Amino acid sequence: MKKLLTSRRKFMRRSALAVAGFPFIARGQFMFSDPALGSLLNKRRAAAGVDMTGITHRWYLDEAVNDTRLDSIGSAHLADNNSVAQAAGVISSAAQFTAASSKYLSSGDIADLNPGSSNFAMAYWVKLTDNAADYGTIGKTENAVETLDWFAQIEHGSADKAILYIFDADSNAYFVKSDTFGAISSGSWHFVVCGREGSNLKLSVNAGAFDTSDVTGITVRNSGTGFYLGCNNPSGAFMNGSMDEVYWWPSMFPSQAIIEALYNGGSGAR
User: Fold this and answer.
1) For residue 128, what pLDDT band results from cuts at 50, 70 and 90?
2) Which of 5, 11, 138, 145 is in the most buried spot, having the most CB atoms within 10 Å?
């Protein structure tokens, strides 16, 4: 009888907490009276073990309009240019860019964003407002040919595909684009991972299959130019859309397991 009463009290406490919106544990999962809240917390729990080894820069882009966007790992904080707005992000908030107002984020030259002939990778979330033009996402270029180092964009002229360009010392361009995934449609978040591993440029969208392009023997130019988000350079390809959760690996390419953990079924992870 005492054992039965104890079990009943435990059940009643658990039920009362669930009704109030608090979790209880069932078979290793958090259970909530609100299914949406439970789903969100379980996704966050699943992503808690993401391996951040090798990442030297990480911009959450949670800050408010006009604020400096902080590098949560390094010291490459990004200055606001022309009042980059704040919008709802994949996780928390995102930076929202408007092409007509030339809004972008920037810093000076960052040493480990000059990959040379080494492996490197970047990952970012992007949500376009429209697909009306080429929209720069992240890059290290200026407006002169001799300052083209590398940049990524959503290229309207290439059927709205995600694309990564690198340039050698003679300004020859090499690129890889999202032929496998296809177009980056407006109005939805997409997770882009791109960079170099060995002799190949690589690019994937939403943790899917990689497109590759051979760059054997190519060294990426280092012109000492600045670093930009929301455009290719401070004179062009300004974006209409939002960016969130930007990562940089200076000497490695992340494993598929890391990419899938960061994608986290479309919910993102930190």
Assistant:
1) very high
2) 138
Total domains in the fold of the chain: 2
Instruction: Tell me if residue 100 falls in helix, strand or coil.
Output: helix
Within this chain, do residues 66 and 139 fall inside the same structural domain, yes or no? yes
Residue 143: per-residue pLDDT: 84
Other C-beta atoms closer than 10 Å to the C-beta of 174 total 17
Q: Is the pLDDT of residue 20 over 90?
A: no
Distance CA(151)–CA(219), nearest Å, equals 15
**91 & 132 share domain:** yes
Evaluate if residue 28 carries a pLDDT over 60: no
Contacts of 126 (CB under 8 A, 6+ apart): 137, 154, 162, 184, 189, 190, 192, 241, 242, 243
- The pTM of the full predicted model, rounded to 2 decimals, is 0.82
